[in-house]
Amino acid sequence: MLVDSHCHLDAPEFDADRDAVIARARAAGVAAQVIPAIALAGFGKLRELCAGHADLHAAYGLHPMYLAEHRPDHLGALRDWLERERPVAVGECGLDFFVEGLDADEQRRYFSGQLGLAREFELPVIVHARRAVDEVVAAIRRIGGLRGVVHSFSGSAEQARQLWNLDFMIGLGGPVTYERANKLRGIVATMPIEFLLLETDAPDQPLATHRGERNEPAHLREIVATVAALRGGDVADIARATAANARRLFALPPT
Questions:
Q1: pTM attached to this predicted model
Q2: Is 4 annotated to bind ligand?
Q3: Is 74 annotated as a binding residue?
Q4: Which residue of 87, 205, 206, 213 has the fewest CB atoms within a 10 Å radius of its CB?
């Protein structure tokens, strides 16, 4: 039984056929999904979605790519949501130094604030780190007392080791299915399995076999098969281990 540790099932791309997407995921063996928010305006929709499905689990956060939608008082509102709703994680939050036009200092303020909330509520944190892994690692060290995952990891093997030493996992999905992703495939082939989470990041990051298509959680079955092939392991063993990692990190209930 698989766990999709990062899927934006609340995104408008799924509004027309969300129930069918959920059914296909379950049929593919996806027993649970973690759905991270990106902005305060979407918290209500996410709560409603997860309330209707026992296998969907909400996380609340302020994504760095959506700075235009955030306001300083949203950190206070996020704190209220965490206290009231008790989600499985804080996130999606982090730093993005790839997209032009995003104020770096403003990103840092929101990220540091959310790391502080994660520590206060003893929740794991779901981190977005694009061209920002070193600074993310430094921020995690500075705040201290944290655990979580850097999703869609795209850093080096050394950066991955630094995260593991801080009790952070790395999340891998569609990009690992591309044959040219040599660095990423090398990391997944040899890394300690206890630090690996599988994800789709649907509707984004389609697999090599689904180029140009909307991604969806059912495709996690193909991702685990790729990871097993790269590691020379059994698909069922990889699925079992990564699902156990996700359940442990996010304190998900047993199926």
A1: 0.98
A2: no
A3: no
A4: 213
Segment 172-177 shows an average pLDDT of 98
Instruction: Supply the CATH number for residue 145's domain.
Output: 3.20.20.140
8 is in an annotated binding site: yes
- Domain that includes residue 156, residue range: 2-250
Cα 24 from Cα 26, distance rounded (Å): 5
Instruction: Tell me: is residue 92 an annotated ligand-binding position.
Output: yes
Mean pLDDT for the stretch of residues 173-181: 97
Please indicate, yes or no, if residue 160 is contained in any of the structural domains: yes
Q: What is the pLDDT of residues 140-166, one digit of tens each?
A: 999 999 999 999 999 999 999 999 999
Answer yes or no: is 57 a known binding residue: no
Was 210 annotated as part of a binding site?
no
Letter string b/e over residues 139-166, b meaning 16 or more CB atoms within 10 A of that residue's CB = bbeebeebbbbbbbbbbeeebbebbeee
Q: Provide the angle, in degrees to the nearest 10, between the axes of the packed helices 182-190 and 220-231.
A: 70
